[in-house]
Amino acid sequence: FTSSGTWTKPPGATFVYVEVIGGGGGGASGCVTGSGNFATGGAGGTGGGWASLFIPAVVLGNTVTVTVGSGGTGGAAVSTNDTINNAGGDGGMTSFGTFLHTNQTGNGAYQASSATAGTSSRPPYMHNNTHEYFGWGGTGTAYASTNDGRPSPYGGAGGGGANGVHSDNTVQSTQAGSGNYGVTVGISTFAHMNPSTQGGSPLQNQGTSGSVNGGDGVGPGDSGGGGFTETASSDGGNGGNGVVPGGAGGGGSGVRNGNTSGAGGNGASGRVRVYTW
Prior knowledge:
Layout: E1 5-8, E2 15-21, E3 32-33, E4 50-56, E5 63-67, E6 95-96, E7 100-101, E8 180-185, E9 188-193, E10 211-212, E11 228-229, E12 255-256, E13 271-276
Parallel strand pairs: 3-12
Antiparallel strand pairs: 1-5, 2-4, 2-13, 5-6, 6-7, 8-9, 10-11
C-alpha cells in the first residue's frame, strides 16, 4: 500500500507479517540575518520510521484498515531580515489497524537566526515491542560541510542539512549536506550514502545566482539534499524532495539581508507491506 486502503485476509491464512514506514518529515527553510550574525541553513527532516510485526492470522478480522502517512511539507522560504526560519511539516503516522504503527516523524527543526548550527530532527518512537528505525536529518549549519542526512537500515533516510553564511560573510566553499537512502526491499535491507542528492558545489553550480538547490531523491526511500548558498549576496538554494517510501526533505540554505532563503524540501509519503502465508 502506497496510499490508505483496506487489507482483506486471504482464505486459509495462518500468519501475517507486516512492515510499516511513516511519512518523511519536511526540511526546514534557511534563516535571513544581517551582517555580523550567522545565517544558518535549515535542518533536513527525519526519514519515515520503520516497524514490523508477526501476527497470527486468527486474531485479525476479515479486513484491516491501512493508513499510509503523508509526507511533511517543506518550510517556506523567508526574506525578512533577522527572521527565524520555518520548520518543515511532520511526516504522518502509518498504521495497520490497531496492531502496528509508526510514530509521527520529526520535521526539519526551527533554527534561531543568530545560532551557529541547526538542530537535528527529532526521532520517532518504538511501538508494539518492535524497534522503529529511521534516518536522522542533517543539521543546518552556517560554516561547515558535516551536515549530511543519515541513512536508515530500513525506513526512509534523513534529509541533508543546508549551509548558510558565516558571521564574517564567508560561506562554506564545497557543498551542503548530502541526502541518503535506506529502505526495505522485500524483507532484505540495504543502506548507504546517495551522493546524487547532495547540495550544490562550485562544480555543480550551473546558474549565476550563486545558489544551488539540493538534489531530489532518485530511488525508493531516498532523501533530498540540502540547499547551497555560494556567496553572501546570493539567494538561498532549496532543499531537495524525498522519495516514497518515507524519504525526508532537505533543508534550505541561509542568506544575508536583502535576499531570500532556501525553502525546505518536501518529505515523501510512507508505505505498508503485508506478507501472508
